[in-house]
Amino acid sequence: MRKMILAVASLALLAGCGMIGGQSDKQALVATCVEKGESEATCTCVADGLEKNLSPELYKKVAQAAGREKQDMIEFMSGLPVEDLLAFSAVTNDLEMCGDPAATGG
Fold first, then answer.
1. Which of 12, 25, 102, 105 is the most exposed place for a label (fewest CB within 10 A)?
2. What's the per-residue H, E or C state across the chain?
3. Is the per-residue pLDDT at 6 higher than 50?
4. 54 occurs within a structural domain
5. Tally of domains within the chain
6. Can you give the pTM of this predicted structure?
7. Vertex 93, ends 28 and 23: CA angle to 5°?
């Protein structure tokens, strides 16, 4: 019984850390960004800015397209409805700060 409780607790801990069930949306975005040559600090800043300013549904779409499917963002965005495109305007200021070494700890 004790082993079973430990096993369930371990699975719960791993699931909470994103080790089971794949990467979180943020992890997928950051990993793809780093693969493209950006620093992890900059990529984390970008993912945080997107998450902060986009609706949860749009953030999930972006993470799926850019992070998991590695789609070209211009092509992805060209297929979005106008209201989704307008949502990205709220992200602009936060993303500009991501290139600032002081904002990303670089």
1. 102
2. CHHHHHHHHHHHHHHHCCCCCCCCHHHHHHHHHHHCCCCHHHHHHHHHHHHHHCCHHHHHHHHHHHHHCCCCHHHHHHCCCHHHHHHHHHCHHHHHHHCCHHHHCC
3. no
4. yes
5. 1
6. 0.71
7. 10
